[in-house]
Specification:
Blueprint: H1 7-19, H2 22-29, H3 33-47, E1 52-53, E2 60-61, H4 63-89, E3 96-100, H5 103-120, E4 125-129, E5 144-149, E6 157-163, E7 166-170, H6 172-180, E8 190-193, H7 204-211, E9 220-223, H8 226-234, E10 240-243, H9 244-253, E11 257-258, E12 269-274, H10 280-298
Parallel strand pairs: 3-4, 3-5, 8-9
Antiparallel strand pairs: 1-2, 5-12, 6-12, 7-10, 7-11
Length: 299
């Protein structure tokens, strides 16, 4: 154990790796940024290799840093799961599971389905967290992460939930107006979802390129999360990219309408990653989640 670094150095490093920023890690840990920087230097001296490539902006993990980040994340996750199991066994805490996902997924997909879970498992509490990043992952205190992408993640156990498709959506009145004026997607008013922490979702640039649509200007209203952008679309402010799983409810209810013949498969999907090993409450929620997706697919 003499070669094992102090736990505080590992938790600081995990926070930096998770948030991708020393500033954000310092804010989350409630310490100063110089304290975080010093902790990283001490850890690098301990392991004998640079963990952060400071020549890039923003700074990125080195190959050694990626290796250590996965190990630390898994190790802290196992400790967290063990502590939760101990609390449950000793009656100190009620049965609960913590799920991390984007704000859009939480608002439009997961939360409307949770009443069914509570009806089946009334003694289990589900905590839903929507971090600032668009790529939630397992970390201490997080049992399950639901995320969008290609599934190339290494922590825990990852299973595909469903393939995702994207299609522009707009308020019915706006869509009718644009169609009456002969305005296509090369000139329609656009609504964007952009932020420094949302870099893994396709944007209008990706969609238009996939469709082969040329557009001279991509300007339009910009929001930093999907829920705000969706409200602007409902208000008739413009057209936004709608992911089928998230926008389908509003389309089904008639609040939004898809742009005709404009759906695109970008080769992405939603995945769920669960901690390994995992508590029984986590397994119960995971089983329900997969069953819910399978039932929806059969319908």
């Amino acid at each position: 154990m003499d070669r094992f670094p102090p736990l505080r150095l590992l938790t600081t490093f995990e926070a930096v790796a998770r948030h991708g920023s020393m500033r954000l890690a310092a804010a989350r840990l409630n310490v100063t940024q110089p304290a975080v920087s010093q902790a990283l230097k001490t850890l690098e001296a301990h392991v004998g290799a640079p963990l952060i490539d400071r020549a890039t902006r923003p700074a990125r993990l080195t190959a050694a840093g990626e290796l250590l980040a996965r190990a630390v994340r898994d190790g802290l996750g196992q400790i967290s799961a063990a502590l939760e199991d101990i609390r449950t066994l000793s009656g100190q805490d009620g049965a609960q599971v913590t799920v991390s996902c984007t704000l859009g997924m939480a608002t439009y997909w997961l939360m409307p389905r949770l009443p069914d879970f509570y009806a089946r498992h009334p003694k289990i509490t589900v905590n839903v967290q929507a971090p600032s990043t668009d790529l939630p992952h397992l970390s201490p205190g997080i049992d399950i992460a639901i995320r969008y992408g290609t599934g190339s993640w290494h922590e825990g156990t990852t299973v595909k939930l469903f393939d995702e498709r994207v299609c522009p959506v707009a308020a019915p009145s706006l869509l009718e107006q644009l169609q009456a004026q002969g305005i296509d997607l090369d000139r329609a008013p656009l609504i964007h979802v952009r932020s420094p922490y949302n870099q893994h979702w396709a944007g209008w640039e990706d969609y238009l390129k996939a469709r082969g649509i040329q557009r001279s200007r991509l300007s339009g209203q910009t929001f930093n999360n999907y829920v705000q952008a969706a409200q602007a679309v409902l208000d008739g402010r413009g057209v936004m990219l709608g992911w089928h799983s998230i926008a389908n409810g509003a389309v089904r209810d008639g609040a939004l309408r898809q742009w005709p013949a404009a759906e695109v498969d970008l080769g992405t999907a939603y995945y769920v990653t669960a901690s390994t090993p995992r508590a029984q409450t986590t397994q119960t929620f995971l089983d329900w989640l997969l069953e819910t997706v399978a039932a929806a697919a059969s319908d």
